[in-house]
Amino acid sequence: MTIPYGRQAINQEDIDAVVQVLQSDFITQGPVIPKFEQAVAQICKAEYCLAVNSATSALHLACLALGLRTGGRVWTSPITFVASANCALYCQAQVDFIDIDRNTGNLCPIALHQKLQQAAVEHTLPDIVIVVHFAGQPCNMQAIKALADEYQFAIIEDASHAIGAIYQLQPVGGCQYSDITVFSFHPVKIITTGEGGMLTTQSEKLFHTALHLRSHGITRDSSEMTESSHGPWYYQQLALGYNYRMTDIHAALGYSQLQRLSSFIEKRTLLAERYIKKLTHLPLKPLVQSQSSQSAWHLFIVQLDPHLIEHKQRIFMALQDAGVGVNVHYIPVHIQPYYQQLGFHADDFPAALAYYRAALTLPLFPSLTEQQQDYICQTLSDVLSV
Ligand SMILES: *Cc1c(COP(=O)(O)O)cnc(C)c1O
């Protein structure tokens, strides 16, 4: 039996909530979607929330709502899931990356500043910077927002790892220092809807654009139409949208899960702190945590000490053989073959590459027991000492 690196926590209430929808009149967008959206809005202190079928869709809608188009420029972190960069390519825009801070795995505001100064000279400033709250720890948003004001770019927070995280005493998702925040509800994330995502914003305009594009670019609101209504059946397509809708079945699971968000985060935090204590004497380093935020602890990542890096494959396999489901987050996006073919080189972002070589993700999820965690730590200690 392998202990997985991440796992959803489904209880009877979750199951009952889904069954209730299946027995109701609405299976796709019905009353549970706005109920789920309002609950997330309240928790995040966001004015507007839009539920969609994945974070990938939410990222695409966020780019479109911010007006990204052919020739536009988007910068993001190379240490993220590929979706954070792909959303720009969906809009025929160009992607570039900003190197990370190896201590946190988050994009480095100093590297961002340097790249902006150079881009200002070359007239290649970005339209949007997508920050990723890596492993659940919020980025230095205040510093990034100050640069956004100076260099005039929009900010999307890819908070796929970070629902429930706190930055400067405020919940992530309130967009205090950004235009749009995006969450993922994939089963390994903090709460799940099976597949699903959410977009939050304080801007009515951005919300309305994303709302239309979620469902084919269609409106049923006569005040938005180009001619008078043909009758009660009438709708107009005003833009080229998509079907990115979430279903009520998914939203019911999400709403039910959301009721346990704080207990999930509490459990993850306890386990993470316990890992940090138990691993202090081993030749590795957990990611450094900032004082101005509280992580949602989506992932527990360690970086192996330099002398162990050449043995990473052996270490990884020995852990797997012992039933410890380790993982690596992430293979830098810029070294993926698709991005190499766009012209990126592995050593374009040296901190990201060095981080990748040393990184190992240990199992972390709410139902991980202390006994399992002790076993993981003991196994790791054994494996590292041979
Ligand atoms: C999971 C994830 C996504 C994509 O989420 P989906 O809901 O699976 O589309 C995007 N960005 C990051 C950082 C992620 O971890």
Describe this structure in words.
The protein is an alpha/beta fold and 386 residues long. Helix content is 38%, strand content 14%. It has 13 helices and 15 strands. It has a 7-stranded mixed beta sheet with strand order 1-9-8-5-4-2-3, with helices on both faces. A 3-stranded antiparallel beta sheet has the order 7-6-13, with no helix packed on it. A hairpin with a 2-residue loop joins strand 6 and strand 7. The longest helix has 18 residues, at 261-278. The structure holds pyridoxal-5'-phosphate (PLP). The site of pyridoxal-5'-phosphate has 14 residues, from helix 3 and helix 4. Pyridoxal-5'-phosphate (PLP) binds at residues 54-56, 80-81, 83-84, 132, 158, 160-161, 184, 186, 197.
Features:
386 residues; alpha/beta; binds pyridoxal-5'-phosphate; 38% helix; 14% strand; 3-stranded antiparallel sheet; 7-stranded mixed sheet
Secondary structure layout:
Blueprint lengths: L11 H11 L9 H13 L3 E5 L2 H11 L7 E4 L6 H8 L3 E4 L11 H14 L5 E5 L8 H11 L2 E5 L7 E2 L2 E2 L8 E5 L12 E5 L2 H11 L3 E2 L16 E2 L10 H11 L2 H18 L5 E3 L6 E2 L5 E5 L7 H10 L15 H4 L9 H9 E4 L7 H15 L2
Parallel strand pairs: 2-3, 2-4, 4-5, 5-8
Antiparallel strand pairs: 1-9, 6-7, 6-13, 8-9, 10-11, 12-14, 14-15
Helix pairs in contact: 1-8, 2-8, 3-4, 3-7, 5-6
Bound molecules: pyridoxal-5'-phosphate.
Quaternary form: single chain
Task: List the strand order in the largest sheet.
Answer: 1-9-8-5-4-2-3
Element pattern in H and E: HHEHEHEHEHEEEEEHEEHHEEEHHHEH
Helix fraction? 25-40%
Structural class: alpha/beta
Number of helices: 13
Could you tell me how far the N terminus lies from the C terminus, measured between alpha carbons in angstroms?
A: 24 Å
Range of strand content: 5-15%
Q: What hetero molecules are in the model?
A: pyridoxal-5'-phosphate
Inertia-based shape: globular
As a whole number of angstroms, the C-alpha radius of gyration is 22 Å
Largest sheet: 7 strands, mixed
- The average pLDDT is 97
Number of strands: 15
- Low-confidence spans: none
